[in-house]
UniProtKB/TrEMBL annotation:
It comes from Puma concolor. Keywords: Amino-acid biosynthesis, Cytoplasm, NADP, Oxidoreductase, Proline biosynthesis. Residues 170-274 form the Pyrroline-5-carboxylate reductase dimerisation domain. It comes from the Eukaryota. It catalyses: L-proline + NAD(+) = (S)-1-pyrroline-5-carboxylate + NADH + 2 H(+); L-proline + NADP(+) = (S)-1-pyrroline-5-carboxylate + NADPH + 2 H(+). HAMAP family: P5C_reductase (MF_01925). It is an enzyme of class 1 (oxidoreductase). This is Pyrroline-5-carboxylate reductase. Coiled coil: none annotated. Residues 13-107 form the Pyrroline-5-carboxylate reductase catalytic N-terminal domain. GO terms for molecular function: pyrroline-5-carboxylate reductase activity.
Length: 277
């Protein structure tokens, strides 16, 4: 089946090769924001284990990766990184110059994608994170050599349905994985510890966890909306001899700042190791 020229965003047909959690998060964000109609999304996977989630959203599903590429001109490849080269080899015969192919797989470089696909294929890499499912994701994208401005702008417009998306040099993609992809787990660990401090002091568990999460949400909104450096907001909360400076002193004694920096560094280094494999 030949792929027709790219229609407008209102007629966009989007494909997902791979139907795991991140693919579902992106699809759900697109649908919730009204960017893509559910029936215009086609997802493939080897089994029905994950495809059932796409069907619950009202999307079309298949077990054929080639069928996705033949019916959608914008396709997200959301497979495991070690599986992606074989999947690209499988679909390469049906890739056309009209396609825009987007890799969600960590560690697979743009040059590798271009080598595995027909010459001059338009490819991009994106690094999303799990909050895309609630349209509050933090994403970066990097474009291949043959991807034009209009292609990148279309993808960025679509991804902004799932949160914040910025175009970056490819070298920043692995750093983003350490900062924001893995950072979700780091923030959850801090939120848990924050709540447990209140539980230790006598607050009921459910209430403590709700307040901790809302504190993180409110602080993030303040930082984004005011555009302040975090140090400025931290200073605004501190009063001489008050509760906050005593708490901050305890955090500094515990090495929170250094431990957090080391966590991002370790996750980034691991992402780079995966990129080299």
């Amino acid at each position: 089946m030949a792929v027709v020229a790219a229609p407008g965003l209102d007629q966009l047909r989007v494909g997902f090769v791979g139907a795991g959690r991140m693919a579902e998060a992106l699809a759900q964000g697109f649908i919730r924001a009204g960017k893509v109609e559910a029936q215009h999304i086609l997802a493939s996977a080897p089994s029905d284990r994950n495809l059932c989630h796409f069907r619950a959203l009202g999307c079309q599903t298949t077990h054929s990766n080639q069928e996705v590429v033949q019916n959608c001109w914008l396709v997200f490849f959301a497979t495991k990184p070690h599986v992606l080269p074989a999947v690209l080899a499988e679909v390469a015969p049906v890739v056309t110059p009209e396609h825009i192919l987007v890799s969600v797989a960590a560690g697979i470089s743009l040059s590798t994608l271009e080598e595995l696909l027909p010459p001059a294929t338009r490819v991009l890499r994106i690094s999303p994170n799990l909050p895309c499912v609630v349209q509050e994701g933090a994403m970066v994208m990097a474009r291949g050599r043959h991807t034009g401005n209009s292609d990148a702008e279309l993808l960025q417009t679509l991804l902004e349905a799932c949160g914040q998306c910025e175009e970056v040099p490819e070298a920043h993609v692995d750093i983003h994985t350490g900062l924001s992809g893995s950072g979700v787990a780091f923030v959850c660990a801090f939120s848990e510890a924050l709540a447990e401090g209140a539980i230790k002091m006598g607050m009921p568990s459910g209430l403590a966890h709700r307040i901790a999460a809302q504190t993180l949400l409110g602080t993030a909104k303040l930082l984004l909306q005011k555009g302040q450096h975090p140090a400025q907001l931290r200073t605004d909360v501190c009063t001489p001899g008050g509760t906050t400076i005593y708490g901050l002193h305890a955090l500094e004694r515990g090495g929170l700042r250094a431990a957090t920096m080391s966590a991002v560094e370790a996750a980034t280094c691991r992402a780079r190791e995966l990129s080299g494999k």
